[in-house]
Design goal:
Belongs to the group II decarboxylase family. GO terms for molecular function: aromatic-L-amino-acid decarboxylase activity; pyridoxal phosphate binding; transaminase activity. Keywords: Aminotransferase, Decarboxylase, Lyase, Pyridoxal phosphate, Transferase. By secondary structure, the protein is an alpha/beta fold. The protein has 13 helices and 11 strands. It folds into 2 domains: 265 residues, 3-Layer(aba) Sandwich (Aspartate Aminotransferase, domain 2), CATH 3.40.640; 124 residues, Alpha-Beta Complex (Aspartate Aminotransferase, domain 1). It is 38% helix and 12% strand.
Length: 523
């Protein structure tokens, strides 16, 4: 049945405001109805793909919003990762502040476009003010500037574009100079993959990034950096940028930023710091020393959708000197004219149309306050440290690197299991936990071996949650070994099935209980 016509747009009328209020209420009802699910759906990728394929995104005629939302609740929202669950701990993927989520409505409803002043008058100066406050918090000088981006990958790209243009002496007008083939970017072996991606996009090639060895803590080894710089000089290569990382993806390590700043200055290279994670440490007086030297960077990536608990996407590229951003500017007669006497943020950005994400950041930071945010960050850093100790004490687990920020890297290593079987065992543990929907545990490789990873970004997680999760990981490994032993001893013609695994560490209904039917009614 085609619904009765109603307001399609927010035109300022009472009817439009009431329509928005009713729509929001329906969305909230669906969210509440699907918020008792587990950390991950157990239906499996094939089933989810099949269900998504059955959705008609663009029917010829309108459907009642209530029916659409009820269907979306059953088929979509009920089968997403639940980032507020303490056992959803694989990635730098946090829950969001309620105040930030609420402010998203105002961003969507007002739809300011952050490229030009005449599309976002007050919003333009609000973002500029926010960038200035972040620079001040980090310790950058008053000459600093910056812009919000969609994420850390975009921020790293922009930061390294500035490094490239700094090496070239200005904006890229007619292609890279003849000597650009000798340019090199130095980053630790644990740096984010976006550094190599950026080098490719910027025309330097992925191989222009030189991976510097890390120490036992996962930090860039300064002695190795010195050796690498010496070798580059001998071969005629030119280091144009040194990239430090404040909170690597796999180990959470923070490079020795002050030492890296010294080396970059000595060779005239741009110093970029990927502080997508570590930028939040400056909120805390206690944790700030962990990122000493950050304030010396020429450019900084700060992801506010990580340990600042903003909805994705909310990142910032902060720069020491606003003049560096001039190479980004590309004037257009219709948009950011050369005779404009106002701020057009497109002059700092690789994006044209862009959301007013500064609003949700402004609202939620003011409504939470620095001290409370600092306490949340401190809780998670402390939680990771204690989780590392729990891993050390567990007879069947092995800590692979000391926690420095919010990441714990470890693996299952039960007694009597040969080294050559451990990789397969850990892969199996991660996959089985995910497939069952019980836990989202990270998996990577560290020093050539398969590793498991817990990343703590959820301030609701406590020590009991972590202890139970580690117990479940160890129990899954034990169950897998038992099953493998049974299968090895079973006769080829045996017809017995695999023994079922029990849920360990949680007194709650299995996640699959809500997923008996992807099309069933919302409870």
């Amino acid at each position: 049945m085609t619904p009765a016509p109603g307001p399609l747009f927010l035109d300022g009328s009472p009817a439009a405001h009431e329509a928005l209020r009713a729509a929001v209420a329906e969305v909230l009802a669906v969210l509440a109805a699907t918020d008792d699910r587990g950390p991950f759906p157990s239906a499996g990728a094939a089933r989810l793909r099949e269900t998504a394929t059955a959705i008609e995104p663009l029917p010829d005629d309108a459907e009642p919003l209530g029916e659409v939302l009820a269907d979306v609740g059953r088929t979509v929202l009920a089968h997403g990762a639940r980032v507020t669950d303490p056992w959803c701990a694989a990635h730098l993927h946090p829950p969001t502040l309620v105040t930030a989520a609420a402010a998203e409505l105002a961003i969507a409803a007002t739809n300011q476009s952050m490229d030009s002043y005449d599309q976002a008058p007050m919003a333009t100066y609000v973002e500029d003010r926010l960038i200035g406050r972040l620079n001040q918090l980090i310790g950058l000088p008053a000459t600093g500037s910056g812009v919000l981006t969609s994420g850390g990958t975009a921020s790293n790209l922009l930061g390294l574009l500035l490094a490239r243009d700094h090496a070239a002496g200005g904006a890229n007008l007619s292609g890279l100079p003849a000597g650009a083939g000798r340019w090199r970017i130095l980053a630790s072996a644990g740096a984010h993959v976006s550094v190599r991606q950026a080098a490719a996009v910027l025309g330097l090639g992925r191989d222009a990034v030189v991976a510097v060895t890390t120490d036992d803590d996962g930090r860039m080894d300064v002695a190795a950096l010195d050796r690498t710089l010496g070798q580059l000089t001998q071969t005629g290569a030119v280091p144009i940028a040194v990239v430090g990382t404040a909170g690597t993806t796999d180990t959470g390590a923070v490079d020795p930023l002050a030492a890296l700043a010294d080396r970059a200055a000595a060779v005239g290279a741009w110093f970029h710091v990927d502080a997508a994670v570590g930028s939040a440490l400056v909120l805390s007086d206690r944790l700030r020393p962990l990122v000493a030297g950050l304030e010396r960077a020429d450019s900084i990536t700060a992801d506010l959708h990580k340990l600042w608990w903003q909805p994705i996407g909310a990142s910032a590229l902060l720069v020491r000197d606003a003049a560096a951003l001039r190479s980004v500017r590309e004037p257009a007669d219709y948009l950011n004219r050369t005779d404009d006497d106002v701020l057009n943020l497109v002059d700092r950005s690789l994006d044209t149309s862009r959301r007013f994400d500064a609003l949700k950041i402004l609202v939620s930071l003011r409504a939470t306050g620095r001290r409370r945010l600092a306490g949340l960050v401190e809780h998670l850093v402390d939680l990771a440290a204690k989780a590392g100790e729990a891993v050390r004490r567990h007879p069947d687990l092995e800590l692979l690197a000391p926690p420095q920020t919010v990441t714990v890297l470890f693996r299952c290593r039960p007694d009597g299991v040969d080294e050559d079987r451990l990789d397969g065992l850990n892969v199996d543990v991660q996959r089985r936990l995910l497939a069952s929907g019980r836990a989202v545990v990270g998996r990577t490789r560290y020093r050539g071996r398969v590793a498991l990873k817990l990343t703590f970004t959820n301030p609701l997680t406590n020590h009991d949650d972590v202890a139970a999760l580690l117990a479940a990981v160890a129990a899954e490994a034990s169950a897998g070994l038992e099953e493998a032993a049974e299968e090895a001893h079973a006769a080829p013609t045996a017809t017995r099935g695999r023994r079922s695994r029990r849920v360990v560490g949680r007194d709650r209904k299995p996640n699959g209980a809500r997923e008996a039917s992807l099309h069933g009614p919302i409870d």
